[in-house]
């Protein structure tokens, strides 16, 4: 009789463990999910605003299709530079960019003048160009991140 009770207790304990784990997993799943949704809508709002910045300040050189002009203005669409050098890209948009840079294996030696954008506009246009054409980057660029990017001395 004692043996049965002990076994039964074990079974009950197992059940409790199982359901608590299930419950905790469920909680953390919903928490993560709503977090993702929040930053997702922030991203799409920022992209919308960034589209306007792009039309006003960038399109003349980088072109409506983001492909730039061969040997003169580097592409943003499918740009390995934009994809891999996040900070340098933010710095270029914020402070301008001149001197040699290599984009998709092609060397450019041009000048992009500083455009006088606010940190928020830089963040918005960064989110736009990182998620337009075939580009995709879920990591939201925030004005705070932009404010931390300093010019190269
Ligand atoms: C006057 C033409 C011009 C305008 C306007 C301009 N750019 Fe550029 N951009 C360039 C040139 C030229 C380079 C390369 C500079 C070099 O050779 O060092 C460049 C480089 C870049 C780069 C890094 C290289 C790459 O292709 O990934 C990014 C990112 C970029 N520009 C984004 C922008 C954004 C965003 C805007 C608008 C806010 C903008 N540019 C406006 C001419 C321009």
Please give a structural write-up:
The chain has 153 residues and is mostly helical. The chain is 60% helix and 7% strand. α1 (2-57) packs across α5 (119-129) and α4 (86-95) crosses α5 (119-129). It is elongated, with a radius of gyration of 25 Å. 21% of the residues are buried. The structure holds heme C (HEC). Residues 53, 57-58, 60-62, 73-76, 79, 81-82, 89, 92-93, 97-99, 101, 103, 108-112, 115, 125, 129 line the site of heme C (HEC).
In CATH's first tier, which class applies? Mainly Alpha
- CATH topology label: Cytochrome Bc1 Complex, Chain D, domain 2
Could you say which small molecules are bound to this protein?
Answer: heme C
The H-and-E topology, N to C, reads as HHHHEEEEHH
Low-confidence residue ranges: none
Tell me the name of the CATH homologous superfamily: Cytochrome c-like domain
User: Could you say which overall geometry the principal axes of the C-alpha atoms support?
Assistant: elongated
Overall pLDDT score:
89
Q: What amount of the residues lies in strands?
A: 5-15%
Helix residue percentage: 55-70%
What is the number of helices? 6
Question: What's the structural blueprint in terms of helices and strands?
Answer:
Layout: H1 2-57, H2 59-62, H3 80-84, H4 86-95, E1 97-98, E2 101-103, E3 106-108, E4 111-112, H5 119-129, H6 143-148
Antiparallel strand pairs: 1-4, 2-3
Bound molecules: heme C.
Short description:
The protein is mainly α. The chain has 6 helices and 4 strands, in the order ααααββββαα.
């Amino acid at each position: 009789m004692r043996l049965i009770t002990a076994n039964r207790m074990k079974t009950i304990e197992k059940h409790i463990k199982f359901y608590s784990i299930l419950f905790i997993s469920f909680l953390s799943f919903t928490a993560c999910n709503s977090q993702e949704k929040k930053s997702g809508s922030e991203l799409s709002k920022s992209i919308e605003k960034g589209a306007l910045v792009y039309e006003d300040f960038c399109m003349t050189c980088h072109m409506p299709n983001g492909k730039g002009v061969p040997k003169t203005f580097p592409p943003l669409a499918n740009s390995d530079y934009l994809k891999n050098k996040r900070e340098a890209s933010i710095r270029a948009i914020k402070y301008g960019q001149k001197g040699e840079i290599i984009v998709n294996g092609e060397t450019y030696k041009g000048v992009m003048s500083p455009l006088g954008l606010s940190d928020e506009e830089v963040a918005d246009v960064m989110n736009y160009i990182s998620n337009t054409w075939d580009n995709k980057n879920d990591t939201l660029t925030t004005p705070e991140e932009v404010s931390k990017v300093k010019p190269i001395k």
